[in-house]
Amino acid sequence: MSGIRSQRLLSGMIVAAVAGAASPALAIDDAVVTRIDSGHVAVEWKDADPVSVFVSAVPQADRKGARAVAKADRSGSVVVASQVNERRYFLLRDHGDRSVLRVAERVLPLEQGSNFRDIGGYKGADGKHVAWGKVFRSGAMPLLTEADYGMLEQLKISTIVDLRSTDERMIAPNMLDDRTGAIFISNDYSLKGLMANYGKGDGEYAYRGMDTFLKPQLKQVFASLLRNEGAVMYHCSAGQDRTGITTALIYSALGVDRATILKDYHLSTELRRPQFEMPPLDPADWPGNPIVPYYVASMKKPGGPKAEPLFTSKGNSHLAQFLEMVEKDYGSVTAYLDKELGVDADDIKRLKALYLE
Hints:
The chain is of the alpha+beta class. It has 14 helices and 13 strands. Helix 8 runs antiparallel to helix 9 and helix 12 packs across helix 13.
């Protein structure tokens, strides 16, 4: 399944939230959930002490609200029945210091989704970790199956922020809000404005100007997070550029380190499934739409559309360059959040209280 190798590469960072640990040091380490097949996942960890594993359909459930699937296990790995149409969260209880970790599949195993993942699990400020089941990111979703909708309904998404342009939304409408009852938020803009500088010259600093161009959408994402009315989901077309910038800003506000932010961003290359990001298109049906020729050309390539690595020809990360520009222009990411998005120190404190545990 797409994303399994990436999950293993990041297993040292995909450590779930700690509940009640006495110190920042975790007895259980390198916890990760990897899908084996349509009916099973492997829960793996590192710990010198025996560990009990519990499963729950609720992301923040405690041990009493979860079902035990392994007791005092020393093997470091258990295989658990978990259907692809079920969203499950796992609690690992250390029998040495009694600490509890939460962990889940980062990538949702959708039949026809692309790059849909939970942003939880990474270590943030004060030794805490980003909560699971509260914030999700994705690429476009025009070809979701009934089974996919069934799984996504379990996420209890209350707000969907569509980062895409009017041109993109027109040809690949988002139907998830209709199926889940979530509030749908978008801002109208032309893709021509977004693409004015993207990919120009030698490709360096390709995200130049995105800090101001995406202000309306970014403000909506952070406002939704601060309202705390339920799970928030945001997406663009590929779930990598605009969505990657948005995720990086959220992680930065929560105190996730830069190396982790960049590695998570670059997971998109492997986790994308471009064939499900856009329905079949006839250019004659969309005269004047600037994105249609691009998608039609990509679909005609041998093997169909493919995800390209998010690096310049010189090997520089697009996101690293964007964050470099933000820090040069504003002094820091937090200063940018305050000046341009209106997310001040009190808001960041609230975000940490809401989304770290």
